[in-house]
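Q: Convert this sequence to structure tokens.
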Amino acid sequence: MKRQILTGLASLALVTVAVGRTDPSWINNSVLMCPPNIPPMIDATTFINNAAFINYYGLSMPFVTANTVNYTNYGILSAYDGFRFDTYNSTTKLYSSAANFLNEVGAVVNCGGTNNGPYFATNTTSFGPAGGYIFLAGYGYFFGSGSVCMVRATNINNRGTMDMGADGLLSLQGQNVSLAGGLLNMEGFETGYSFRQSGMFDGYWGLGQTPTYNPASYFGTVYAYSPSHWVTNRNYLAMQTGLYLSPAKPYVDARVLSPSNNLFQVVYVQNSEPSFPSTNINVYFPGSSIVEWVCPTTNIVTGVIATNHLYLQDRMLSITNLSLTTNGAAPPNLDYAWTYRPTNYFFYQYGSAYFGTPATPGMIPGIFPDTNITSEYTAYEELFQPTTALLGEASGQSYTNMPGRIEVLI
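A:
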């Protein structure tokens, strides 16, 4: 009997070990990259990272440990979908507040930010009847849009950096929260290699034939207005509109194609922002018509001055069959249906690019025919907002529900 009881106890002990127990601590002292490694399953009271734990796997949920009460980071913690730093009880399957969270001086917690995996990208664009190319090449990063970093602990002390990718959520909830000497950063407008930037939304789009109009009366030396034309807005409503610019600066490029055939490219630019100097706007020819806006900015945290460049490229001369291309998403009430832009327009934010010598503003008299004509048109409106979603399209239409936010709850 005794022998059988002892055998049974030994079997029970083996089963307990196989199921797993909570270790006193989990300590990482080396670089742990996933992949090629599989993300560890951590069941420990104390979590300490002294080196680098970087998880590239996209699991559509933050990385979670089990039964952890204390979190300390001296190195780099990086995850595509983010982290949860609270206590998950593997027995009750419930979450509760942890005791301590410490992100030390020089340490980094990165959730979906630009440290999550570099890539190299190139783009080549041809333009103009005479030929010409723009070649862009550079390093970028995969970053997790909508990543989450949730810290829920009695004592929270961030003395390092906590970096979130675009549209992420950083939530700090505790009784004693100290952020002295640390940095909380939400990425968005300045990061990632993409021609579809944060804060840029399709307003309306359209193409077709204009009604009959007289160009000489529509385009002048200090003004321009378009014939009435039809467009579709981001709410999928058709509407008739027109564009009127006054005052406006004209830029002209004139080329002789043959003894009886001249080509004129004309760009009108209106600057309605008093604080933005007109000297920071450049127009380039020939081939594509390119408008460049140059804006120096100062980082309020670091004091570093950087120069931002926004470009609008019109490639109508090089496109024989104008069409619409998908470019963004409509509001939630339309199930995030596609929004569009005409294929000749190209808005992008990038570093300084060389397109030659900027054109000088001025008009050539008599270049517009003084007769009634119809012409092919494209129309496009781009909306610029200092957010990654339009406020009227956010859930609850409140800033507290906007994606890409940092909240501290004490």
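Confidence is low (pLDDT under 50) at residues 1-19, 115-144, 191-195.
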